[in-house]
Please model this.
Amino acid sequence: MVTLTVNGKTLETDAAPDTPLLWVLRDHLGLTGTKFGCGAALCGACTVHLDGQPVRSCQLALANVGAAKVTTIEGLSADRSHAVQKAWLELDVPQCGYCQSGQLMSAAALLAQNPAPSDADIDTAMAGNICRCGTYNRIRKAVHRAAEMLKAEGA
Amino acid sequence: MNANLAQDGTSRRDLLKLGALAGGGLLLGIGLGGCSKPAALGGAGGQPVAWLRIGGDDSITVFVDKSEMGQGVYTALTQLLAEELGVALEAIRVEAAPVAPEYVNNLLGAQITGGSTSIRDGFEKLRKAGAQARTMLLQAAATHWGVAPGELRIDGGAVLHGKERLSYGALAEAAAKLPIPKEITLKPATEFTLVGKPAKRIDTAAKLDGSATYGIDVKLPGMLHGAIAQCPTLGGKLASFDGSAAEAMPGVKKIVGVGNGVVVVADHYWQARKALEAVKITWDPGANANLGSQGIRSRLRNAATREGRGVRADGDASAAIKTAAKVVRATYDLPLLAHATLEPQCCTADVRTDGADIHAPTQTQTIAQATAAAAAGLKPEQVKIHTTLLGGGFGRRLEVDVIPAAVLASKAVGKPVKVIWSREEDTTHDTYRPPAHDEVVGAFDASGKLVAWKLDLTGPSITARMFPPVVATAVDPFAVEAAANFPYDVPNVAVNYNREEIGIDVGYWRSVSHALNCFVAESFVDELAHAAAQDPYAFRSGLLRKQPRFKRVLDEAASRAGWGKAPAGHHQGIALMEGYGTYMAQVVEISMRGNQLAIHRITCAVDCGQMVNPNIVDQQVEGSILFGLTAALWGEITLAKGQVQQRNFDSYRMLRLPEAPRIDVHLLASGEAPGGIGEPGTAVVGPALANAIFAATGKRLRSLPIAKSGIVTA
Model:
C-alpha cells in the first residue's frame, strides 16, 4: 500500500508504484475531475497541484509523489469558492468543459505565484493547456477577473 | 454537482418508477407530426417517452434529446421550454433523453446531434411541449376552482386566481389526466422574455468542480477497465494474438480479440494499458498496406479528369468560358483532418443475456443502440443508451466505432467494462475529414464583368458510407455545401461533384464540406477580385446586390473591422458564407515579418436568424473560428503504408492560448428563422486568413495547411 495526501486527506492505495498519479486519482481514489487527454504532458487536462505547483499527473508515477500534498480540482475549494472558479462561472467560460479542470488548476497556480499577471504571464502559464473548443479568450479574461477578485478579497 | 444537471442515470431510474406508477406527476410526451400520446405514458419496453416531467414536489425536468458537447444545447433547448412554461431557466433540471422515436431529429431522420440542427429542430418542439404542459396545468387549475382558464394567470411555476395559488406540482397529477391539447398557440417573438436573451449556461458550475460526468468518468458497480490496440493499418484486421505474458500481469482479467483489435480487460485502466504492451499481436493489414498520402492525391487528381455530376447549372458556364475575354483557372488541394476531441473515444458497456446498458458520449443514440445491439446479439429495444456529457464532439462521435469492442469485452467477462482509447489510438483511428482536389474557373467578358464560374469538386463521400440511401440517386449533399449555394450574381454557374473513394473511411468534421468548399470558393473569389484589379470587399459587394443577408454581414464585418483602414504593415482578408441557415462574414487582420505570421484580430459578423441565447452564440462563433484556425494553420493527417503518421498533440498540433487572436463577434438582430451556429465560423476563417496572407505577401495559398507553405506563427 502507498500512502498519499490528496485534498488534505491521507489516503491509501494498492495501485502499483509505477502507476501515473492521474490513474491513481481517477481509478483508485474515484476522483474523476482530473482528466485524461494525451498521456504525454502535451494537453494539460490532467493538471493537479503538487505542493502548490502545477504538474501533469499523467507523467508523475505514484512512487514519486512521496509526501508531497496533492490538490485536485475537487479540492481546489469545498464549494466552488476559489477565485478562478468564481471568475469562470461569472464569464461562463466552459463549452464542453473537458479541459477546464486542468485550465483552472493552471490558473490557480499562476495566481498563487503572481496575483496580478500580465497577458504575457498568462500566455506562459496557460500555454500547456489545450482547449479544443476554443475558450481561450474567455479564459484570459477570467484569469484577469480572478486576479481582481483576489485583490478585492485581500483589500 | 450542479442541481440543474442530472447525471449518471440515477434520476432516470426515478423516472422509470414514476412512469410506471403514472401518478403524482405530469409526464408529457409529444409525438412526431403533432400526434398526441396519453399524458402520463410508458413507451415501448416500459421506457417512458417524454419531453418533460413535473413532479408532485414541484420539480420540473426536461429530457433533452440532443447531446451536450459544449455547444450549449442543454441550456438553449431548456430556455425554449421555460419560455412557454412560464418558469425561470434555473427552475428546470436537465436529463439526457433515452432513445425513442419521439426524439428523432426531423432534419436528419434519426436521433442525432449534428449538422448544427439542434435549435432548428427543437425551436418548435420544445416550445410546443412547454405550451401544451402550461395549457394542461391551466385547465387543471380552472377545473379545481370552477372558473374558465382565461381568468387565470401563471407566475413562477404556479397558476394564480386572484390571491389563490396552486403550484405546478400540486396541479401535475390532475393535469396528467387531461388530453394533450392539439391546438396551441405559441408566443410570438415579440413576447419572448427568455428566448433571444443572453443567459448563463446551466452546465457551467458542474464543469468547474470536477463533478460533471463525461463518458470517461462512468462508474458502474463491478466495472472493469479495457485498453485497446487496433490494427495500425486503416481497414486492417486482427490476424492472431498471444496474450500469455499479458494474462499473467497484475489485475488482468481477460484478453479479447475484437475484429480489428485487441482489448485487455483488467481491474484498473493502467493495468490494462501496461498489459496491452505485452500482448504479441499479428495484424492483417488488408488492402491499404501500401496506401500513402501521395497515392490519395494522385487518385483524386486522376478522378478529376472525369466529368462530375452536376449540382448546379445556371446558364452555360463552359460556353461562356470559351468565349470569354479573360479566363482565370486554379486548382486547390485540401488535406485529411482528425477531429481530436480532447476526451478520447470511450464507451462503457454492461452486457447481460437479456439486455445491455451502454454509457457513452455519443452524438447518435439511434445508431449507437443499433450498433451495440448487433455486437451483443440483442434486439435494439433491449439496449439502453445513456448519453453522458461529451468532451467535444465535432462530428467524431457520430461514429460508433468505439462501441463494439466495449460490448464484446463486457460480454466476454460478464461484467461492465469501460474501454478508453489512448490518444494515439484516437488520432490514428479517426474517420478523417475528406481530402479534396478542386478545380475552379472564372471568366470575364471584355467589359470586365464576371460572366462564368465553374467549380469541379473531387473527393470521397462520407454519406455514402454512413447513410447509403441518401446517395443512392443523388449527389452527397454533405459534399457540396458552400458550393451549390454560390451566392454571387454571375449569369453562368456550374458546380459539379466527382465522387472518388480513397480506401479509408472519411467522416463528418465540424462544418463538413463547408470547410472544404468555402476555402476554395472564397479564396478564388479573391483571386478573381485581384484579376479584375478590384478591392476584394468591393468586388464581393458588387456581386451581392440581390443577396441582402449576405450583403448585410459582409458590410457589417467590413465596417466593424475598419476595412481598408488597417494600420501600416497590417493586411486584411475577407470571406463569407451561408451555411446551416446562417450568414457570416469574417475579416482577418494580420502582419508578416518575413515568413512569420501574426494574426491581430478577427472580426466576425453573423446573421443566424432568431437567436435563443446570444451568450452561447458568441461562444460558438469564437470556438468555431479557433477550430478552423487550428486546421488552416497546421491541420493535416498523412498516411504511409496505410498508417496515420500523426499520433499525439506533438505531431497533430492544436492552437494554444498564446496563439488565440482577439476575436470581435457582431451578432445581428434578425427576425429570420433560427440558423445553426456551431459550425459556420470554422469554414469562413481559413479563406479569410489566406486572403489576408495574399494581401500581405502576394502569395496565393491553394493548399492547406498554411504551415506547409513555410509560414510560421510569430
User: Anything to note?
Assistant: Chain B touches chain A through 61 residues (CB under 8 Å). The CA atoms of residues 243 and 279 of chain B lie 5 Å apart. The longest strand of chain B covers residues 582-593. Chain B has a mean pLDDT of 93.
